[in-house]
Amino acid sequence: MFTFNRKLVERVFLALIAILTGLALFPLFHIILTVVAKGLPVVLERGVTFFFGTFKEGGIGPAIAGTFILTFLSALIGVPIAFLVGLYAYEYPKSTIGRWTKVLLQIMIEFPTILVGVFVMQVVVVPMGTYSAIAGALALAIILTPYVAIYTHEAMREIPFTYREAGFSLGLTRAKVLFRVLAPMAKKGILTGVLIGLAKAAGETAPLLFTAGGLYESYPESVTKPIGAIPLLIYRLIQSPSPKDHAMAWGASLVLMTIFLAIFLPVRLSMKEVKM
């Protein structure tokens, strides 16, 4: 009797876990299916024009180009700094600066991104007198920095201390141990942080409202001029009362989701945990 009840309780518990897991994943799959169902007809109807045409031509080409430019520039600015910050937090965990660095990184992850946009507007946009790609990229670089830094710090901590000691025993300097021994061993964890940071930056809208400005009738020509982005375009389209604009917003959402999944999923799934 006791054995029967125990097996019954176990089955009920597993069923409950399965149901709760399904409920947790339901919003994600619902979003993906909804975006595909409403965005795919728009993309198929307009064809190549949707990807390369300007807004007047019924396309989002400038927004796609702007998203790639902003993401690239933000990575160029933020990733090296974040990598070095993560290394410092790992190398000097007990120092005052090291402890405060970890605290500030945690705060930055939860910090409202719209305030980042306001800050960059005051220090870059207002002095320049115009929205620009460089201002938008700087805002996105600030947003992705804590993700890359924290993942770098945690990836370095996963490396056994014996490898560090082995490097010093060979006469290597601290810098060489960090950059030539430990960092290459932690590259998968670091790359994961970079991908998550870039995905976060590529999907941001709030900071771009105050920095990028938006450009959809022509392709961007300079980093000192306004630039468009897919999330910013979607935000503006859904405020329009026109059903055509709403349809374009669904198509743009599908493109944005496809870009994110095409970059993140293959790389992330191909990563295997390194056994030490």
TrEMBL record:
GO terms for cellular component: plasma membrane. One of its GO terms (biological process) is phosphate ion transmembrane transport. Its main location: membrane. It is found in: Cell membrane. The keyword Cell membrane applies. The chain crosses the membrane at residues 12-40, 60-91, 103-125, 131-150, 190-210, 247-267. The keyword Endoplasmic reticulum does not apply. One of its GO terms (molecular function) is phosphate transmembrane transporter activity. Keywords: Cell membrane, Membrane, Phosphate transport, Transmembrane, Transmembrane helix, Transport. It is a multi-pass membrane protein. Pfam families: BPD_transp_1 (PF00528). Residues 64-267 form the ABC transmembrane type-1 domain. InterPro entries: MetI-like, MetI-like_sf, Phosphate_PstA, Phosphate_transprt_permease. Belongs to the binding-protein-dependent transport system permease family. CysTW subfamily. NCBIfam families: 3a0107s02c (TIGR00974). This is Phosphate transport system permease protein PstA. It comes from Thermococcus waiotapuensis. The lineage of its organism: Archaea, Methanobacteriati, Methanobacteriota, Thermococci, Thermococcales.
